[in-house]
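Handout, section 4.2: multi-component inputs.
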Amino acid sequence: MSAKQNSKKFKWALDFNGSKNAEIPSPLGYNPSALVNQTEVVRDQRLVIKKSWDLALGPLKNIPMNLFIMYMSGNSISIFPIMMVGMMLVRPIKAMFTTQVTSKMAEGAQGTGQRIVYFLGNLANVALALYKCHSMGLLPTHASDWLAFVQPQTRLEYYGGGISFV
Amino acid sequence: MPGINVLAGITIALLLLSTCSALYEDQIRKFDWRSVHVGALKQSRVDLNHFQPRLLVSTHEDVVALLCPKTGAIMWRQVLEQKPRGDIKLLQVSGFSVDSSETAAAPIGTNLGFDMLTVQGHAPALVRGWNTNIGTIEWEWSIMPLNSEKAQDAVWFYSNSILYHIVPAWRSHLEVTAYFASSGHSTGSTSKIMASWITKETCTLSGTFYVCVDGKQLISLDLVSKSTQVIRTALETEPQGTIEAVEGLNGVVIVDGKLVSVNKDQAVCDALQGASYAVGSFNYRKIVVSAGLTSGNLKISVVYLDNCAPVPELQQTLQFPEHFGTPTLNSFDCKLKRNGDGKSCMFVFSTSAESIVAVQQGKVRWSREESLANVIDSQFMDLPLADTEGTLESEMKGKAVDSTSFDRDIASAFLRRISTQAVQIRSLFLHVIGLGPPPTDTQRAGLVRDSFGLHKMLVLLTRNGKIFGIDNISGKHHWQLYLPKVNSFDNAEQMRLIVQRTAKHFPLQPLCAIVAKNSVNGNGVLYRFNPITGLATEGGLLQLDFKIKQLSLLAETEKDFVKGILILDASNKVHVYPQHATPLANGMYLYTADVKSAQLEGYFVKYAGGQLSCTHIWNARLGGHNSEQQIIAVAGKNPIEHVHSQGRVLGDRSVLYKYINPNLVAFVTQAPDATHKSVLNLYLVDVVSGSVIFSMTHRKVRAPLSIVHSENWLAYSYFNEKVRRTEITTIELYEGKAQANSSVWSSLQAPPMPLVERQSYIIPAIVEALRETITERGITNKHVLIGTASGSIIEMPWHLLDPRRPIASTTQGREEGAIPYIPELPLPTESHINYNQTVARLRNIYTAPSGLESTCLVVATGLDLFVTRVAPSKTFDLLKEDFDYILISIVLVALTSGSLIVKHLASRKLLKQAWK
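Output:
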């Protein structure tokens, strides 16, 4: 118990009474063991490229899965299909906006190609979701969808009259 | 096959469930009220000495009723057959016989005696004995006259338990037949009395005497006496008007306001002068009461019949309100118990404005407005704004007069807003401490616009020229106006009630106008008044010096927001009132329809060089090849209607655009036909260009016809003679899948011909009136209100009347939301908007939009008046009545405080954890 307390104490305590020629202590919270071994990175470069291709091809790999979900959820408008379509639409769009962040993790020789593939894959997913929306009738592509905004015709002539009073 | 039927039945039941908007039991009389009328008084009997004081009346609307003499409330009412069958010729109450035989001589032990007896109609003539306590018919007998045409002018009188039937053959003879009143057995043969002097205009029946004017003398016959001796009575001067009988005095007639007796056994007081007379008893002595109106005061003078001495206890003069018109004393009675003071005498007057007025002790005790039994036009008027809202309104809009010069820069607008609000706060403060300005009359009466625009002034125009301002929520009569000497137009066209300025233009007051015909010279009459106060404005009554042929409201308003009235006179000249709005009439189109020849004429109004001219531009003859067709109905669209949806969505999600021609008018003509009995034609005519858009023929079909025309559809009901039932045909017009011109509509640019959808339905009721619901913006569904002969109003959703209801249940129809076609229209009890508040003799239904988009105000007129509101798409813009405000607020408060507490607890817990 006391040892634990001591270690806690040492962790948060600075000893200013140490000898002056001693090495300057590391800053607080610095862990020298966290240093990446440069040589290891170079060695695993191929692995990284492979991994990042996986990442870039992820959206494309999702397409068959999405198609299956779409087929299963049907065209009726109810809460679950709507939620699915919403997710299918929102996820790739979100992913597209965060392409920069994602690709930063996998910067390499084939970075541009990966980015393009990733982007296209997401685009394909969006298109798929839009197609689903269309087949569910959620897209305002028909004249009837704009009917509420059709203004009534202004009349040019006014009339009056009726059965003769005489 | 039965499976399909069941399925269809279930679908319809489900659809109906969704549309049903029936009232709950606790909502009865919450949104609606009914006022019950009896019609203009014909005969009355006050009986204050009966064990239950009573006032028995028969009216011109063929109603027999018992009124409470204290309040005028109806104890019971029997609405009899329509004219001519129900025309009440005689009301005889036992104990009120002309002679002294006080009771009907019914054999003892039988129930053939009578309390009250009525004679109605002429072919057959129905004689009915009534139990006056509960208003039931006890017995009835009828006679069928040999010559029903002659019998039209027949008169009846009762004497000594014998009922006499007199059939005059003008300028020839009288046929008198006597019947035992309670059994209908003839007492002998018909006696024929030769009387070559009798004419329809000059003769009357007074008790048992048949009296005629012949120059300066009265020739009379005593029809009861065995010897038919001709009695001649000389007069001082030749009578100006017609002679009238005095009820209760045998053989006495009123000649120019004076009593003249032709019966030698009946002496009268010659000195009396009055407009109307009645006879009764006071202090066990017979008295004659005469009443007349002099300069707004009603004078009742009474004399004893035997010595002509005045009865000072009963003499009275009272202020008689102008809106009652001219009174006629109908009957009176005095209580026997309280002798001497005369305070218990009640006089019942009928007036020219069709009111029933009861006068007692020099005061109007009660009055009934029976002209409301004949409402011919109605308008719902918005009420004025409350003062505070009024100032806000004027701030928003600027004054109406200087709206163009209204300074619109931000700083001044801000200053204005601050100052108005300061004024508002000050007035609120003054109001709280009780020093504020007194509220105006209309505000004191509670006539202030509510936030939903549901509270309105219902302005009703009645057939005899009386106008009412009635609160549509409470049914209170706020004001009455009586226009004497006005009449409806020829061709059964009624007077018009026109709104020239609505209440939307604060601080300007709304303005209404009545266009009628002068009953004396037939010229036009224009009366303008404020519909909130009922006071005449803009000069009030205006006598025009021409006959009106047709009229119209101008499309645009002049600078004071008044819409001018365009009048076409009999010589095809046009006039505009007010006159300064004349230039606005430029470019108006007018049409007139001649009923008999079924000929339409179109005119174009042009303003040039300070002069209005009217050019005849088209002609249409709907009379058929042998000009036999006559117009029986004309239906245009409601000019205030808004069409929100311009098309209809089909099953494949394409749009079928509606053919919304604002100038389209439907004409229905009818003619007898050799092979088909009767043929009915419907024409849809564009009255600007005069082109017939569509026409349709129904064979073996005849009136009664009701028609309603709105948006792009038309519904009309008629009687099918072949299968003897009432049917409703509906028509919808569509432009097609594309609009030819989506921005403007011009009838002169040859718009494309519409596609017509039509369908007929069977309705298991007799339709008296059809009307569509109307709302402010036209977003709410349209329902058709069907008024039936039994007095109920049925709210019929348009999708049940829809002509696109598919015959075969196709997928397209189902996706379109159309119900499969079933010819019979269902009339579920939930859709009767007046539940058990039957409107007797329902004649018309009027609708008006309220301030709420969902709600439509309805007034049904007939003998009774029924006012309610309907919400065709339910009240989607209003919280439900049973909305639980308390629960919602408790939940809200609990949730908010709960989340606050939880937040606090969570932060504390986090802090604790951090310190661990």
